[in-house]
Amino acid sequence: MRANQRQGAASWGGVIKLDSTTAFSVPDCKGFRVNPGHSPQTKGHFLDSGRRRGTRTRTRRRTRMDNGSFSTGDTELDQAVEQWLQYDKNLKTASMVRDLVKEGAVEALKKCFSSRMEFGTAGLRAAMGPGTSCMNELTIIQTTQGFCCYLEDSFENLKEQGVVIGYDARAHPPSGGSSKLFASLAAAVFISRGVPVHLFSDITPTPFVPFTVSHLGLCAGIMVTASHNPKQDNGYKVYWENGAQIVSPHDKGISKAIEENLEPWPQSWNAEEALKSPLLKDPYQEIHTQYFKAIQKHCHHRDINKSSEVKIVHTSVHGVGHTFVQSAFKAFDLHPPYAVEEQKDPDPEFPTVKYPNPEEGEGVLTLSFALAEREGASVVLANDPDADRLAMAEKQESGQWRVFTGNELGALLGWWMFRCWKQQNSDAGAVKNLYMLSSTVSSKILRAIALKEGFHFEETLTGFKWMGNRARDLLDQGKTVLFAFEEAIGYMCSPSVLDKDGVSAAAIAGEMVSYLATKNTGLSQQLTSVYEEYGYHISKNSYFICHDQDVIHTLFERLRNHGGQKDSYPVECGRFAISNVRDLTTGYDDNQPDKKAVLPTSSSSQMVTFTFSNGGVATMRTSGTEPKIKYYTELCAAPGNSDVAHLRKELDDLVDAIIENFFEPKKNKLQPKPE
Asked: What are the Alpha-D-phosphohexomutase alpha/beta/alpha domain coordinates in residue numbering (predicted)?
């Protein structure tokens, strides 16, 4: 869950022409919150209260550039722009701002300077461009200065232990920004304070950063990436000394420190000198070696892998994953997967896909399916651009391709990880020390497996920051954390990385496919076997797009004050009776004796879960990264109930009822998920 500037927003903004060859998309960040758990705090008040959402006109006011002075007619905006031009040494972003001033493009300036990105539990994420609302060299320096100061206050040994910084391949030529440059500037800030920096010399998957924090015993880690966001975005993701993403109150402390350190320090811009410093180390080779050594502990069928004739296709979707997945397959003695040539090399333009997100399914996998058909491959694996997520598809007997949902792949990997663990552990009592985790909006299939097999299952709030930190706590208690997953195709298959990891998951999935082939079965058949043994778990997840925070607020408040009665929730939805309500926005749970939710609550993000008498569970929540209201539904059947057609019909009817009665898309003018 990502920080408080609006991701993907640049594509919704107005376009200000700067010269005959260049256009700059100004992020339009109004209308939705990015970091659940943190209220959107606007630094400055430059937005006109009367301006309608979505306005695309430019307000021109008289400006004056004599002797460097100017006026937009808004004193606070003038001061923000003037301070920016004093601080910013990037010629491109400074020139963009000056051109906007010359043009009198006040509305565009407001979009750039109306708010400062708020540092949340996942750091920052926003469009690249000029101003305090965007990712650029100056905001990277300011953020890192604050983070450095916070670490200095938190760790006496910071100058002995140091930090690690990694980056993906994103770049934004119009503003001169790139992940590599941002990472170098972040390194310069730490080095200027005498802090050792382990800066990767080349692009890396996001999982390499938390792995490095744990492996080298560092104080913190930074990964410069926007994951699967649109191409104009970038991000700044932070890990704590325990190898997991930060949680509150660190985010608030870091945010405060950023506000207190906005003026660039003398050496913060000097990335070239920093790269020559003896405090700078390149961990690439060591971490590359140690990471693949660590994940080999999860290779249990090396002989089968060596002789397997299964053909697998892999795509990195123009991201960083290709080289690392090839190495992971080699570490498992699997035959190298066929790489989608058009997508295997990093390309910040993501030219072959509309969205570089394999979670979107078939559209992103079109080239993979074509290659699989040519090579006779039966399985496709796909990573997102920073290689921390994994999608998988299998060719069916009908000739069609089945793209597994995040929940289905979670069920398969969970089954596989436990099966391999059980074969390695003959002590019947060892299972009592074993844990699996998943997020509360993910399938409950791990719970069903745990109940039958005797290990522990826990659910956490949405996001791997919660699962990673909980896993760390359990590991510190001497427990074994075998597997964790979230429905958004995120899987943690090794405690060496306390975050989702699409690289290790790809190799483990490859071994699972090879093993199943020796039993003359495939992924779909095995998934059916899992459901028949532990009970069918049928899921249906989607979302509506909504840019209006007032509509979102009203929609959820209506659920909390059903029938006009305050603090009264619905007891039915259409023909479906509701047996339990849990509201993690208010902290209410009528399944608890004291009516108080066990999981942490957050008043600044919307999340309500309904449990139905027919075994269905539905969660409605706002997205932390996009203008979406998401819903997650699942129907959990007892083992032996194998009437899948009936279960699917029951779930479809339940979803229809939820949409009609709770979302009311026509009344609320909600846009459905694009097909």
From this structure: 117-262, 290-395, 406-534
